[in-house]
Amino acid sequence: MAVLTGARVVTPSGVLDDGWVQVDASTGLIGQVGRGEPPAGERLALSGWLLPGFIDVHVHGGGGHDFTASANDLAGGIAFHRRHGTTGTVVSLMAGPIDAMCEQLGWVSELARAGAVLGAHLEGPFLAPGRCGAQNPAHLLAPDLPMLGKLLDAGQGAVRTITVAPELDGAGALIGEAAAAGVIAAVGHTTATYEQAMAGFVAGASLATHLFNAMGPIGQRAPGPAVAALDTGAYLELINDGVHVHESLVRLTARLAPDRLVLITDSISAAGMTDGHYRLGDRDVHVTDGRARLAPGGQLAGSTLTMAAAVRHAVDGVGLPIELAAAAAATNPAALLGLSSERGAIASGLRADLVLLDDRLTVGKVMVGGSWI
Ligand SMILES: [Zn+2]
Asked: Is 208 in contact with 236 (CB distance < 8 Å)?
């Protein structure tokens, strides 16, 4: 077995300075993990921080590739984010014509069967027109069980999450149907009150889509969906780019729910690219200083984050301990998806998906299933 030595290893039980990690290349799994004198084996000396591979449960593209443009762009965008430390991806699909969404689900399900992605996130079409963000309102639909069935069938088991506005007529039944089918329902793109959002969680939703964004603000007598999500046991997606959410709210969420915070990129094709014009689904987006906005319109249209940049900002900008940032980028999303026994932490018996960060928290090396890429 190969032994990785010399790095500060970020594990669920804390950071192991001068830690070591055994990797079994034949199985692609982590062997033992420890600190101090490493066991016998072919040693690879590293320096910096060794984190579990990131799991991004909400992402639309990157490296110039919009996931919905073509099967090739989907694969290209996944590869871009893999180079930036994302070793598990749930592919987000925007609200679009149903036939187009079904075709895109076909691409995702093929990659899921090959083990290249963890599945699909349907960000629509059952969203509130008043909080549709960058989504095209022309493609939004009222909750519709046969339509949900058609989308789930097109995904052939690959649909993992669906964002629903819980205040829409029929949303409760749709959330219940999704949950019964093993799909994680997420509250988001919503004009819901606290009570309406809470009804969505009671109906079976267990995730909030980009908490604080595309939902009403927090008022002292109208706390809104964000507080409902914090108040229940739901997992909480956050776009931690310093643009979408104030750092104090990221700190507060991490303090209130360290085991439920899930960093996402929500990034679009412009991630890793220069400022300029891009497409997000069928929408035009202009990126200035790394901020993506609809053109025309001006609404924030996803981000240009990578998961590594989100982790770096969590530590350097927000002030979270690196082990909490690693949990939010890998361990918690794995738990959300029910994959904790397989991935999401540096621990014996889990997949050897690893990210090596240097002292400035930029990506040095990425290992997927026991092999460096
Ligand atoms: Zn999104």
From this structure: yes
